[in-house]
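User: Hi! I have a protein structure encoded as tokens and I'd like to know what sequence might fold into it. I'm fairly new to this, so please keep things simple.
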């Protein structure tokens, strides 16, 4: 049975009531969840499952399960999983997830500032990176930092819409990230749009407006190959 992915419609949902549907060797599957499972360069969420009697089970990771849209909640070692049918409340470590949302959205802006093919990427709670194929040799950290911060400060709206797999196939230019294939095969694909700046298929979680990201700083530009450049970006406050 697929899991209802609450974070897809509402990335700001911090908790939701749910029922255990199955227990797998890796962890617990619920009928609905706010936990984003590892994928698309964004880490799986952490948090807890709260039982009716108030006891809590720590969720140390969330990963994709077997079925479509199935999410496995990985419990801390030694924890005993609640039986199928048990009602729980799924609660996120919200501060960590919000940092993922801010940094993930920031990487969309970075890809708008550097309009080159993206060959890889990774989001973390304190930093993020994108790998680009860039023909030119020079790329200034300070210049990229200021351009991204200008887009953040402009407080652009970040919106989502859905198109069919067939519509996406007719617009291959939408797919910028060659390393992360868009999640096709469900009949439709979700597009993330930063108005006028960026439009691409993405299954991750994003903030609603770019101003919510806060100031960032390009900390490193590494040469990974003849034309490959890794751009690492962190929050300017950089506190965890
Ligand atoms: Zn995204």
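Assistant: Happy to help. Inverse folding works backwards from shape to sequence: for each of the 240 positions I chose a residue that suits the local structure. Here it is:
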């Amino acid at each position: 049975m697929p899991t209802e992915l609450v974070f897809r419609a509402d990335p700001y949902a911090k908790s939701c009531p749910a029922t255990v549907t199955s227990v797998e060797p890796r962890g617990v599957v619920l009928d609905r969840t706010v936990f984003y499972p590892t994928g698309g360069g964004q880490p799986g969420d952490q948090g807890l499952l709260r039982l009716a009697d108030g006891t809590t089970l720590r969720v140390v990771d969330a990963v994709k399960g077997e079925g479509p849209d199935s999410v496995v909640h990985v419990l801390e070692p030694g924890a005993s999983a609640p039986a199928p049918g048990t009602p729980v409340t799924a609660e996120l470590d919200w501060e960590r997830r919000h940092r993922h949302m801010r940094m993930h959205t920031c990487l969309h802006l970075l890809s708008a500032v550097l309009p080159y093919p993206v060959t890889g990427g990774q989001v973390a709670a304190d930093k993020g990176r994108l790998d680009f194929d860039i023909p030119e040799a020079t790329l200034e950290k300070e210049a990229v930092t200021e351009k991204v911060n200008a887009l953040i400060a402009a407080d652009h709206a970040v919106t989502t819409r859905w198109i069919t797999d067939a519509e996406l196939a007719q617009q291959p230019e939408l797919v910028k990230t060659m390393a992360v294939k868009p999640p096709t095969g469900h009949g439709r694909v979700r597009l993330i749009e930063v108005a006028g700046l960026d439009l691409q298929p993405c299954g991750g979680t994003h903030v609603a407006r770019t101003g919510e990201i806060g100031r960032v700083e390009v900390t490193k530009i590494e040469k990974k190959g003849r034309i490959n450049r890794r751009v690492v970006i962190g929050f300017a406050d950089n506190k965890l």
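A useful reference point when you look it over: The radius of gyration is 19 Å. Feel free to ask if any position seems puzzling.
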